[in-house]
């Protein structure tokens, strides 16, 4: 709560007492009206300011507040001792003086900034219902996990676990505290904030999620999760309908742990960079309808993505999977109807995609790019696997050869057009070799 303003009638000054550094226009006009009510009607100047604005435009949109000081009244922030200059702010509307007048009086070691003086309108939900509706509208823009509950902020650098976590300024310091603030099944969101002055924030905490429908959303690779302990995997998802997006994930040196372990249904992993983990990049078991998309998984000691027992109808799409043992490995019992599409999978010491025996109806759709996988692009020992040609079957050269062979191989009658075409191809090949 700001301090009461001081009114100097002799010098026509409204002073904001130290240590306050912000003056809100609504607070200013409220204080002015309180003082004006005490003025005698017979005084020569019994009005200090006019105010306009806050006209309702509908939908929680209002015209901005404009306070016009009369009769040379000005606002001043109390002088500071120095030697450093302190910035002070006028917010929440527009402050203007009389004709040609400056509404701000100078004081020692202060610099005043009008943050909102150019703002034509202000947008403020008038009721909690409007606020909730706006939050749900924003949540509906997500590709998945659209429901939205409470929002909590996690800042490992500037946060404190004594805070309530409800704003970036009152963020908590640990994920464990943010997780405690969430309600099981309420679709709550934890926003990870990167505030380190270096530009990249690193937390050494393990992330264990045991509450359903929690969403962890970070700003991207500038928020790194690299635990100091090898006691557990970096991120463990043990609850249904959990989202993890926008974070960088790695294990400490010498670790044998996974980057992300999923033991639940409908997990959603997006926009993550999983780098150099001691175990698998991502390990999934006993999961259905989970999605991994738009992520990079590279340089894991184990497989890039390891699909274990009990995984049904999961989707892996639009990922870059690079330099692991297998890019994607299917091995275990009860694996059915899993889909891969539009991934870039390259430079693995074994296979790009490995499908063990007993795995049912795996679908490798088109749009994949494979390169330099030492033992082959796709190793299929499963049952009823469907592999589109460009996703790991014949190369363009092999397809062209097959077309030529189909046309020419059984047409060897001397003088026939097929024989002439075949002879021409042989001559062209020999000429190319020479």
TrEMBL record:
Q: Could you tell me which residue ranges the Right handed beta helix domain spans?
A: 229-358
Note the SMART domains from the entry: PbH1 (SM00710)
Q: Which Pfam families match?
A: Beta_helix
Q: Which domain of life is it from?
A: Bacteria
What protein name is recorded for this chain? Right-handed parallel beta-helix repeat-containing protein
